[in-house]
Amino acid sequence: MVIDTEIELLRFVTAGSVDDGKSTLIGRMLYDKKSIFEDQLEAIKKTSQQRGNDYIDLSLLTDGLKAEREQGITIDVAYRYFSTNKRKFIIADTPGHIQYTRNMITGASNANLIVILIDATKGITEQTRRHAFIASLLQIAHVVVCINKMDLVNFSNDVFENISNDFRTLASKLELKDIHYVPVSALRGDNVVDKSENMQWYNGATLMYVLETIHISSDSNHIDCRFPVQYVIRPQTAEHANYRGYAGRIASGVFKEGDIVKILPSGLTSKIKTIDIWQDEIKSVKEAFPPMSVTVTLEDDIDVSRGNMLVRENNLPNVATEFDAMICWMNEQPLVPGKKYFLKHTTNQTLAMIMEVVYIVDVASYHRNEDQRQVRMNDIGRLRIKTSQPVFFDSYRKNKITGSFILIDEHSNDTVAAGMII
């Protein structure tokens, strides 16, 4: 089968409690879509037999770490890639344990869609609430609730409806918009790729059909023009003696040849001369939009460097040295208020200080704890941050690229937190 190189890419993440069947679900998709190499299939067949299983344990396809294979659990984010004739996919299989919340944040940060698995024999759990909260916090546009292990509840319509209604009640407290509900048996393959003959009462789509057809092209912000400059290109060759271009990835909006742009932080304006891309050779295009990586040249010789941002004159981002943000703390060492960290935002980096811990969220109850001041690993809370230089940002809800950042310990160089600007 020949796959179109221009086919659309969907990034999705799987989440759920321990042993809800995330890895088995992904393995089932790959197996039924014939996206497994023969040697991989033989290896998992052999391992399944060694464990005494009378079936092929498809979860072994994603539990790639040796420790995971030994324990039968996922302890890190496992990425898998596959294609169909309709779409390309990047899957992030995230761990289900509470102590690995930071791993889920990492895996879900760039996702278009999240698949939340719920064990039909258990219903909504604390981890379901946690993962739904994180999906809301990260503003993941599409949610598929897979109620798994339907074979263990005799493929009951009532069980499916009751759990679906419980999740609807949960979702009403969060910012979850496009939600789909699918009853599946990952072990048997019911409603994963093929329609189930055991659930004739279900008239909806299979999980694979939802993944292949869900509309994601309008998920990006095509209104607010933001182009963080990553690198200044000056070949200084005879062929391109006077070439000076500004390379980077379009964060949002649509930039066109001839547009008037403002450069931040200088505030100077110029006109876009060309928008260049590389396809075996330099080629100019009339317009660029996310997530294209391009090189922009300007009519005027203006001092532009890494960390600067090209925007529209009448559509400016916020410019400030102090703002509030929701963060997930990822380091074993607790946050130290008043300590300096590096704040990396788009292509810019500046020193930052935590001025105040406003509250910590109890993701099991969604209660805001305003008395807790210490932020520990996997905690999610609201902070007030002050930077040494102005940051050009939008709210995360409006723009995921210009509304997100990471904090880096200036001594160890460890990434200690991921943040979403409010």
Structural description of this entry:
The chain is of the alpha+beta class and about 425 residues long. It has three domains: about 10-215, P-loop containing nucleotide triphosphate hydrolases (Rossmann fold, 3-Layer(aba) Sandwich), CATH 3.40.50.300; about 225-310, Translation factors (Elongation Factor Tu (Ef-tu), domain 3, Beta Barrel), CATH 2.40.30; about 320-420, Translation factors (Elongation Factor Tu (Ef-tu), domain 3), CATH 2.40.30.10. Helix content is about 15%, strand content about 35%. The strands form four sheets. Strands 7, 8, 9, 11, 12, 13, 15 and 16 form an eight-stranded antiparallel β-sheet that branches. Strands 2-3-1-4-5-6 form a six-stranded mixed β-sheet, with helices on both faces. Strand 2 (about 80-85) and strand 3 (about 90-95) form a beta hairpin. The longest helix has 15 residues, at about 155-170. The radius of gyration is 24 Å and the shape is globular. The model is unreliable at about 1-5 and about 65-75 (pLDDT under 50).
